[in-house]
Design goal:
Layout: E1 5-9, E2 15-20, H1 21-29, E3 33-44, E4 49-58, H2 73-79, E5 94-98, E6 113-117, H3 118-124, H4 149-152, H5 176-182
Parallel strand pairs: 1-4
Antiparallel strand pairs: 1-2, 3-4, 5-6
Length: 189
């Protein structure tokens, strides 16, 4: 999203989402949001120039359930700290292993998937952990979505400096694309 990213706050200033400048302007012009922070450059139309928002606040309160972490490869690697759950080897060259193999009725759910290096995954194969004479370093579980989960997962760039006062406790970080290439995860405080 880069410089096109806009932080969307609920009426009570709770961070809700990240959207693009165009969507933010539609909300502002429609009277559904107000601009709290603007970028130096404006957006031009045929007849007017609008400030390009960086942070907007909705005029009405959105009630939403606490988000759940989506079951994806990336989220499994983040949960497991980019570490093989069998041999404790860290790295970015990991695979996903089903603790109870799918061929034996294991489901693709948080409690049954772990990060594994290729060597351990190949060694375990379609066997149970006991049959493969292996052990897990920690039991898999569904991670709880953090306070800024929806914001962090939508960013491909570092947190913008003008967002920091609206995101207390989050640390400005490296762009996700850089962190992924280095095999590290981005963490908030």
């Amino acid at each position: 999203m880069g410089n096109n990213a806009v932080l969307v706050l609920n009426q009570n200033y709770e961070p809700l989402n990240v959207c693009n400048v165009r969507r933010a302007l539609v909300l502002v012009i429609g009277g559904k949001a107000e601009i709290l922070e603007a970028k130096a450059l404006g957006m031009s139309s045929v007849s007017a120039v609008f400030p390009a928002p960086s942070v907007i606040r909705l005029m009405y309160l959105i009630r939403r359930p606490r988000p759940r972490v989506k079951l994806t490869r990336r989220e499994i690697f983040i949960r497991d700290g980019y570490t093989c759950q069998y041999c404790d080897r860290q790295g970015s060259d990991l695979t996903i292993d089903h603790v109870i193999p799918r061929s034996r009725g294991g489901l693709h759910v948080w409690d049954n998937v772990v990060s594994a290096c290729k060597t351990c995954n190949h060694r375990k194969g379609g066997k149970s952990i006991a049959e493969a004479r292996m052990s897990l370093r920690k039991q898999p579980h569904e991670p709880r979505a953090g306070q800024y989960y929806t914001i962090e997962r939508r960013l491909d760039t570092a947190i913008q400096t003008d967002w920091q006062k609206f995101l207390p406790g989050i640390t400005p970080s490296l762009p996700r694309s850089y962190a992924r290439s280095q095999g590290t995860s981005i963490k908030s405080a």
